[in-house]
Amino acid sequence: MNARTMAASCLAAIALAAGPSRAQVNTMPPILREVSITQNLNAQIPAGLAFRDENGNTVHLGDYFGSRPIVLSLVYFNCPALCTEVLNGELHTMQASSLTLGKDYDAISVSFDPKDTPELAKSKRDVYTAQYRQFGRPAAAQNWHFLTGDAASINALTQAVGFHYAYDPAINQYAHAAALMLLTPDGRMSRYFYGVIYPARDFRLGLVDASNGKIGTLTDQAMLFCYQYDPETGKYGVVVMNIVRSGGALTLLALGIFMFVMFRRDRRNAVASPAANPAAKVS
Question: Considering just the CA atoms, what is the radius of gyration of the chain in Å?
Fold first, then answer.
């Protein structure tokens, strides 16, 4: 596969993440018809699925569930193109976000190629966590996990999150879509972000959403009222009615405060008026 064909396949896979149209299905290469992402929102990730960490130790996905939301990326570590862009986009978004890896959330990158090894996973982790630290962020090696596993665990995980991909033996590569996923602290699917560029605002709001408001600020909570997640686009959009409602509520509040101040001033004036006019008081 030459560079132009590879680039076209990557762009097609990114477009497919949001769901292929009927015209796309009829014209795309057969292998890409197997590639898609189904948003299994609120689906529980099986906590007992076994993988290997960067040191070759057996771990279970449930070991990473707990107090913080999780950023999940499904890639394979020998990928020559798209997976690197997914990880680069994830890194850049984490660097741009004011939320901190290890403090506010954790990250897990799982290879869906059963041939990938813990040694390769460790080399990937070292590269990306070193770049995260270069931006003045604290050490991330203990909170960004790069996992490998056997076909059974991989299939169970990809089915649970709705990640559909296909192996092309002719070029010894996988066809797959590009996305970043957010999990709640207890391992339920919360958000999907498509492509390889993830806006820092959406990333932050998604994590605040996934944490049920346990991270973030009051400003974030206010923004979540005005911005709503759209599963079709994988982005947060402005909710006009919420803004209208909040604007109306603020108007009523301001009117109420104004009326309270005016009534209170009139009452003070009425009480003070006899005291200021003794003649009126005698009469």
Answer: 27
Per-residue pLDDT of the chain (283 residues; tens, 9 = 90+): 444 444 444 444 444 555 555 545 556 778 888 999 999 999 999 999 999 999 999 999 999 999 899 999 999 999 988 999 999 999 999 999 999 999 999 999 999 999 999 999 999 999 999 999 987 887 788 999 999 999 999 999 999 999 999 999 999 999 999 999 999 999 999 999 999 999 999 999 999 989 987 665 655 555 555 666 677 777 777 653 343 344 444 455 555 565 666 666 666 666 666 555 555 444 4
Local structure of 202: helix, strand or coil: helix
Whichever domain contains 92, its CATH number is 3.40.30.10
Beta strands in 160-224 (DSSP E): 163-164, 166-168, 173-175, 179-183, 189-194
H/E element holding 71?
Answer: strand 70-75
User: Distance between CA atoms of 268 and 170, rounded to whole angstroms?
Assistant: 88
CA 43 to each of CA 110, 182, 202, 210, 230: distance values in angstroms, whole numbers, following the listed order: 18, 12, 21, 13, 17
Q: Which domain holds residue 43?
A: 3-238
Angle at 249 between CA 247 and CA 253, to 5 degrees: 115
CA dihedral 103, 106, 107, 112 (to 10 degrees): 170
Decide: pTM greater than 0.70. yes
Task: Kindly state the tokens that stand for 254.
Answer: 């301001």
Tell me the residue type at 140. A
In a domain, 88, yes or no: yes
Domain-embedded: residue 60: yes
